[in-house]
Amino acid sequence: MPKQHTYDLKVFVENTDAGGVVYHANYLKFAERARTEYCNSIGIYGRRMMEDEGIAFVVSSQNVKYVRPAFLEDVLQVRSTIVQVKGASFIVEQDIYRGDTLIAQIVSKVAIMDMRTGRPVRVGEELAAKFSG
Q1: Which letter, b or e, does each residue of 85-102 get, where b requires 16 or more Cβ atoms within 10 Å of its Cβ?
Q2: Active-site choice (17, 74, 95, 100)
Q3: pLDDT tens-digit series, residues 86-115
């Protein structure tokens, strides 16, 4: 499998509640950005896939464990690893850190979908090779 990908971000006021604590749904946004950057870093571009091949990645399930709060102006790092590729999907584990402190853990199952039919599509050899490094 590919090595871990890291994505750094800063928490802005738009990411927090009135108390300056990151709103829980924003961790999913952070993870989405990090997954997109990870895919881009290994040569997988969502828009190009949709336009050229008529396929897209869609999250089919997610499990989130909130460990510690993050706050306004924190600098966070999302560490993403593709841990499994199978059939028409792949599993991504993402840990969000502030320095050495674990903030949240997210495990996402991402399916590959045919945009015309809305049905799953098997992971092709080229895509599987990019995922496996």
Answers
A1: beebbbebbbbbbbeeee
A2: 17
A3: 999 999 999 999 999 999 999 999 999 999
